[in-house]
Amino acid sequence: MRRTLLAILCLLQPATTSAQTTGDPDAGERGFTRCRACHSVTAADGTVIVRGGATGPNLFGIIGRPAGTGEGYRYSQAFRDLAASGFVWSEADLASFVADPPTFLQQRLGDPAATTGMGFRLRSGGEDIAAWLALQGTSRSVSQRTKDQTP
Ligand code: HEC
């Protein structure tokens, strides 16, 4: 009897992690201290999630957001070109962008002369930050918003 109970309990044990992303959002939240000198995370309704500098655009909802479309931010030419190409941020792309912004843009745009105003490189942990950012305004809510705007 006891053994059966144990077996049942084992079966009921929930799967602890569902690996949706490769990054660790908790580590990413801590890692975002590296970004906040230049970036805030502020929701559309003005709620400040992370207070940060305004050198770079607001990163709320960045995963699933088309590049270069942060409201009220004046982007470099490279970012305007990237926006024109219809590029949308995924977690993987964001991680490789922060590791080496100029190279990322040069490869995406096929322009070896492309430069960016983001003069910062993150050696490691970009996946974690991307996973945390993905939770700050989900891509689902972004595509929902886009859908709502379509007549
Ligand atoms: C020294 C300031 C600075 C730091 C630190 C910095 N950034 Fe940036 N970031 C910028 C600037 C400036 C831009 C706009 C670049 C342009 O227009 O060329 C930018 C752009 C971006 C974009 C593109 C946004 C969009 O709307 O398409 C992402 C994503 C981004 N940064 C992520 C990060 C992350 C994540 C970190 C921390 C690991 C970080 N940045 C750290 C200055 C910074």
From TrEMBL:
SUPFAM superfamilies: Cytochrome c. The keyword DNA-binding does not apply. Transmembrane segments: none annotated. Residues 23-137 form the Cytochrome c domain. Gene3D superfamilies: Cytochrome c-like domain. Keywords: Heme, Iron, Metal-binding, Signal. It comes from the Bacteria. Residues 1-19 form the signal peptide. The keyword Metal-binding applies. PROSITE patterns: CYTC (PS51007). InterPro entries: Cyt_c-like_dom, Cyt_c-like_dom_sf. This is Cytochrome C. It comes from Pseudogemmobacter faecipullorum. The lineage of its organism: Bacteria, Pseudomonadati, Pseudomonadota, Alphaproteobacteria, Rhodobacterales.
